[in-house]
Write a structure and sequence with these properties.
By secondary structure, the chain is mainly alpha-helical. It is built from 14 helices and 2 strands, in the order E-H-H-H-H-H-H-H-H-H-H-H-H-E-H-H.
Length: 303
């Protein structure tokens, strides 16, 4: 498989001093790369994802977004700063707008997949994690009924944003990456509406706003409390991969991840065996030795 490294190299060049949200995004690069190259994401980006799988995803995502909006609501109640409350309220409204995109799919299909579908374990695990965090049920943190001071409540708001920020940044990232694969004015991509939504300026701004808010809420926290946020961030990223992997994908696909190789800008890493599986071992030397040994003598006599 040929892997473009332009996007990841840009991410790695970000200054770590910009805030914990960006530092965590860089630190857990392996997770978001896995999400980007998950079979579901690759098929969606290529446009050959079967509609049945996409409908199942939309149904699961509908329930996830409802939990996401509820988590924002709980975080808003915990925040003691008016500016933070307003920012969280705006973010919650953006989730409600996102749900309207799901409604538009329902209108196109003429059936409500969300009502017909059964929640899969990955969706339940993800939503339970979000709502538990937003309710203050975090290891090492007092329960919501025992939060004596506004500062303690604010910590729960920070923990909640730590669990929500990776999802926002991941979808904003995927939207931009998938948008880059589309030709200008291309309408043949069946999931263009999904890509346009997450690559839009509005969603990109919401993702950045979420990260900025996480940084703001974390300024006064101790190192131990920041460690808790890091664990929540990491857990959310892993749950997102599980969410993608849980979609019922029963198809084989080979997708060009870039349209044209620009040698001045792109660097490709080839790491595929003959059976098209990836390996962590560099077999170039072994293959070269085999080629030399098995080469006809007539070829070996050539300069």
């Amino acid at each position: 498989m040929a892997t473009p490294t332009t996007s990841t190299s840009k991410a790695s060049s970000i200054d770590n001093a910009e805030g914990i949200a960006r530092r965590f995004w860089i630190k857990f690069r392996k997770e978001w790369v896995c999400a980007m190259y998950s079979p579901f994401a690759v098929c969606l980006a290529s446009g050959n994802l079967r509609i049945e799988t996409f409908r199942h995803y939309i149904a699961q995502d509908f329930h996830f977004l409802k939990a996401f909006a509820q988590a924002y609501e709980l975080a808003e109640e915990c925040a003691d700063d008016d500016d933070a409350k307003l920012a969280i309220c705006e973010l919650r409204k953006s989730v409600l707008e996102e749900l309207k995109m799901h409604d538009s799919f329902v209108q196109e299909w003429g059936t409500d997949a969300a009502k017909e579908a059964t929640l899969n374990p990955a969706t339940i695990k993800y939503t339970d994690f979000l709502l538990a965090t937003a309710s203050g049920k975090v290891e090492g943190v007092k329960g919501p009924g025992k939060l004596a001071t506004p500062f303690e409540k604010t910590k729960v708001a920070a923990y909640t944003l730590g669990a929500m920020t990776p999802c926002m940044r991941l979808y904003a990232f995927l939207g931009k990456e998938f948008q880059a694969l589309l030709d200008a004015g291309e309408d043949s991509q069946p999931y263009k509406k999904w890509i346009d939504n997450y690559s839009s300026e509005g969603f990109q701004a919401s993702a950045l706003q979420t990260e900025d808010l996480l940084d703001k809420l974390s300024v006064s926290l101790t190192g131990e409390e920041l460690d808790i946020i890091e664990k929540l961030y990491h857990q959310a990223m892993k749950l997102e991969i599980e969410f993608f992997s849980a979609q019922p994908l029963v198809q084989h696909t080979v997708v060009p991840l870039i349209k044209e190789h620009n040698r001045a800008e792109d660097h490709l890493l080839i790491f595929s065996d003959f059976d098209l599986t990836c390996t962590v071992l560099d077999s170039s030397a072994i293959l070269a030795e085999i080629a030399i040994i098995t080469a006809p003598k007539s070829d070996q006599s050539q300069p």
